[in-house]
Amino acid sequence: MELANALAHRVVVLDGGMSTALEQAGHDLSDALWSGRLLLSDPDAVRDAHLAFYRAGAEVAITASYQVTFEGFARHGVSAEETARLLHASVSLARSAASDVDGERWVAASVGPYGAMLADGSEYRGNYGLTKQGLVDFHRPRIETLVQAGPDVLAVETIPDVAEAEAVLEVVRGSGVPTWLSYSVRGDRTCAGQPLEEAFAVAAGIDEVIAVGVNCCPPEDVANAVTVAGKTGLPVVVYPNSGEQWDARERAWRGDGTGFGALAGEWTGRGARLVGGCCRTGPDAIAVLADTLAG
Fold this sequence. Notes:
By secondary structure, the chain is α/β, with parallel strands linked by helices. It has helices at residues 3-7, 18-24, 37-41, 43-56, 70-74, 80-98, 114-118, 132-149, 162-172, 196-201, 222-230, 259-262, 264-269, 283-294; strands at 12-13, 60-62, 106-111, 153-159, 179-183, 185-186, 189-190, 209-215, 236-239, 245-247, 252-254, 272-275. It has a single domain (3-294), classed as TIM Barrel, CATH 3.20.20. The protein is built from 14 helices and twelve strands.
């Protein structure tokens, strides 16, 4: 069954933070290539992380391609040919992990924002100073490569502003590959400060878009976003962070993230159809989420 058809009938559980799962398994992700580096150095670790999420109850695995860009990897001496191979591998590893579990599973190819390539937190600010055409030129080669890899859906995620969303959707239009569009937000606005109504409206009329929503945000920002996104008539996708707070002085996370799973019922009650987690949500958190939604 296509994912879009499944969403017409029920809530579908997404996975959690790939980086979180890898860090919990003991991997160091401190360099600029982040989780994408393990596609090159330890692909089995990526497959294992996908499998852990599937076994926890996730029905959709988001690939480790968020940080994989031709420009970013070239800075670290990786050729364009090798980067394309890694993008394909990101999809095949998730697909391979799905073969080890029962039931229907889907693979979402992660399309991260331009700011992820910069590795400086720009995906939480936007307003890069690029023209729309510059953003189109950046996104097109990676998206076209991921489309060739055959994912079930493109996960256009952590997009901070409307300008970048428009550029990505220009590339996606006509591809024939189902796509969801998910913004990074603060309160009731994108990270770049645009109203969510304006942000979600850019998906109108693009046949490939099967869901809109938010990710990589505090759990308390989700409920309002679900309501606003629902006005588009499209299914809503949400996968926030755990709710823990980073203490820069102590260099440690504060809080236990228990609010993440507890709020899921409110999100689905407002109409969310794809629900998962982002930063600080490992397989254990997704297991709790899956149990909560099943109940």
